[in-house]
């Protein structure tokens, strides 16, 4: 991995390939290796940037006073792009990564040449959801990650996709509880991105696993309806992580979308 010192914070990232830049933004509570199949596939044709977000993987949490807002993550990504002298890129975000991608679009639309939102949703948190996220943050700090990882594994990865389960479980267990807790607290206060989606001026792709119970197909359909120019793809026999559960199908959808961005209008 490479490391970039941006202002007072260190960011770990993988930078592979050449050509049009793709920025892969991982979800919670994972790290950049959740994109392993896509890094291998698309670094043959693109420049693929896959960072560990603040508090995840090899990127330290830093001083976030116990809460990392989506705006902090988005500015970290904008800073990384500037450090790498990348003017714009296709941003691919999954779950929390999708919400960070929406925040990056809201703050720096000039940086976003294409937008892929996978297994995510745009609405602000409900009062009940805020309480649940803060309670989970307390639990992770108290108990660590393993119990949580054991409980949610079958929702992250459908039980019939056993080939992906071990990697997903390892990522969750390896995550720093302080980083995960800070992200949960910050995410509880996120804005509503539905209006942001209506202003996206670039073609977008919305992807979702058919059996995702965290962000069901209905959420993907709502985003697809809000975006001015978007394609919706449902990955069969996948839950919350279709990029790992069904990488060939997921990559085929991404490849078709990437190719569409270079076709004459």
Task: Characterize the structure shown.
With 265 residues, this protein is α/β, with parallel strands linked by helices. The protein has a single domain, classed as Rossmann fold. It contains eleven helices and eight strands. Strands 1-2-4-3-5-6-7-8 form an eight-stranded mixed β-sheet, with helices on both faces. Helix 9 links the parallel strand 7 and strand 8. It is globular. The chain starts with a strand and ends with a helix. It comes from Streptomyces exfoliatus (Streptomyces hydrogenans).
* Count of distinct structural domains: 1
Please identify, by name, the CATH architecture: 3-Layer(aba) Sandwich
**Overall helicity:** 40-55%
Content of β-strand: 15-25%
The total of beta strands comes to 8
Query: How big is the Rg?
Result: 17 Å
Question: Uncertain regions: pLDDT < 50 for 5+ in a row?
Answer: none
Characterize the main sheet.
8 strands, mixed
Number of helices: 11
CATH class: Alpha Beta
- Strand order in space, largest sheet: 1-2-4-3-5-6-7-8
Mean pLDDT: 96
The CATH topology is Rossmann fold
The sequence of SSEs as H and E is: EEEHEHEHEHHHHHEHEHH
Keywords: Hydrolase
Domain AB hydrolase-1: 22-251
GO molecular function: hydrolase activity
Organism: Streptomyces exfoliatus (Streptomyces hydrogenans)
């Amino acid at each position: 991995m490479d490391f970039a010192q941006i202002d007072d914070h260190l960011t770990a990232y993988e930078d592979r390939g050449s050509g049009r830049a793709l920025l892969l933004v991982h979800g919670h509570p994972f790290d950049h290796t959740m994109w392993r199949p896509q890094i291998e596939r698309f670094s043959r044709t693109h420049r693929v940037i896959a960072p560990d977000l603040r508090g995840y993987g090899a990127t330290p949490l830093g001083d976030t006073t116990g809460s990392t807002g989506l705006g902090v993550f988005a500015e970290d990504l904008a800073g990384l792009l500037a450090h790498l002298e990348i003017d714009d890129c296709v941003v691919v975000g999954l779950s929390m990564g999708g919400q960070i991608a929406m925040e990056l679009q809201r703050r720096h639309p000039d940086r976003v040449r294409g937008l892929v939102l996978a297994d995510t949703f745009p609405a602000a948190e409900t009062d009940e959801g805020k309480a649940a996220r803060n309670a989970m943050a307390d639990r992770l700090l108290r108990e660590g990650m393993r119990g949580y990882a054991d409980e949610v594994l079958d929702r992250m990865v459908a039980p019939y996709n056993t080939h992906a389960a071990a990697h997903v479980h390892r990522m969750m267990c390896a995550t720093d509880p302080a980083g995960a807790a800070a992200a949960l607290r910050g995410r509880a206060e996120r804005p509503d991105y539905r209006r942001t989606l209506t202003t996206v001026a670039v073609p977008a792709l919305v992807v979702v696993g058919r059996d995702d119970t965290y962000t069901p197909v209905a959420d993907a359909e709502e985003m697809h309806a809000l975006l001015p120019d978007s394609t919706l793809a449902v990955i069969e026999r996948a839950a919350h992580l279709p990029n790992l559960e069904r990488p060939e199908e997921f990559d085929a959808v991404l490849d078709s979308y990437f190719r569409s961005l270079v076709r004459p209008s």
